[in-house]
Amino acid sequence: MRPEFVINPDLLRAFADVARTVFGYQAEAIAARDDKFTPAKLAHAVQRISDFYISKPSGKTPYELPGAPAAYLLYYTLLNHVRTLAVFREAKNLGFFEGIHRAIDWGSGMGAAWLALQDVAPEVLGSSLAFDRSTQALDVQRALRRIFAADAVTEKHPLTIDDRKLREFMTVGNPDKTMAVFSYSLTELDGLPDWVLDCEALAIIEPGTNQDGRRLLAIRENLIRQGYKVWAPCTHQGACPLLTHSKTDWCHDRIQWQQPDLYSAIEQHLPMKHRTLVFSYLLARKKLAPPAKMISAARLTGDQQNLKGQTRQMVCKGTEREFLSWQHRHGEPPEFARGELVQIDPAAPKKGADLRVIAGQVVRA
Ligand SMILES: C[S@@+](CC[C@H](N)C(=O)[O-])C[C@H]1O[C@@H](n2cnc3c(N)ncnc32)[C@H](O)[C@@H]1O
After folding, report:
1. pLDDT of 318-341, one tens digit each?
2. Which amino acid residue places its CA nearest to atom 20 of ligand 1?
3. Which of 7, 54, 60, 195 has most ligand 1 atoms within 8 Å of CB, for mutation?
4. pLDDT at residue 136, as a whole number
């Protein structure tokens, strides 16, 4: 099974500390004063932000709404941090970060992605630049970093709202060692900015919605045309079967995570529950090709579905829209999660869109 993602306890302490010192956040039991944020009050603010995102899917994050910055820290930043953790763990396992020592986190907000890189692959952060239009969000990010990664609070890791500093960062350093990161920020832009195509590595994490997911598939096609090699989630460079063989499908991952108390305290006042986390993502490199073992691997792009007589699961290994199908008459099917990378025995017979597999013919890659 895929691991359950757990937030680094030191980072959780930083979240709690910043929430308390910057926003006057207090746990429900002791929060008596009206000017203090409680989980219930933050849940109201989360709901307002959520309503905003639903009514304006490509609108700019509304930090100016009442309570929004505190809600963004303890709810959205935390969720996005876990999603980016998952993507960067996968990247690290694949060897995706080889030769990368500089990162630009565009629309970095309160640092969900930067903090994940610091946790999973600090070697990538030889130097970095966090760019956002919100000074307030960057101030909160700075406060988190001071606690979680004090060594990285130097002039080698600027946080800025100035577009010229971003361009300067690109011109003074080696683009072949540079990765551009977009975590839930491309959704607020019309397309990839021009400087991005100079970067050797791209990591894009987007909401796992139909609209954002399909848009990312179109961006993938464009990147391949520009000479990029996709490392994940795809194991091939061909046309995406979800884009070409369907008008409604989109590629998205789902992970299990361990909800910290800090987060559950807010979620219990909300109608939406994040028992699992969903997102779409793309890892691409310009010059470095994915390892050869990826070519024969396949990505599970669906959840397992228990149907009458069979268990079916969408799988991607090329331009065809395909499914693994375990016939129950051959025994209990093995459990695989969406997002896992597997090897499939080429001898498995194909019937329509289904690869009829039996135990032992699908193994984790
Ligand atoms: C949904 S938030 C994501 C923040 C963070 N990356 C995360 O994963 O939590 C999108 C961020 O993009 C920033 N943003 C949107 N448009 C921008 C622009 N034109 N220039 C700079 N930042 C922008 C917003 O201020 C916001 O912080």
Report:
1. 999 999 999 999 999 999 999 999
2. 133
3. 60
4. 97
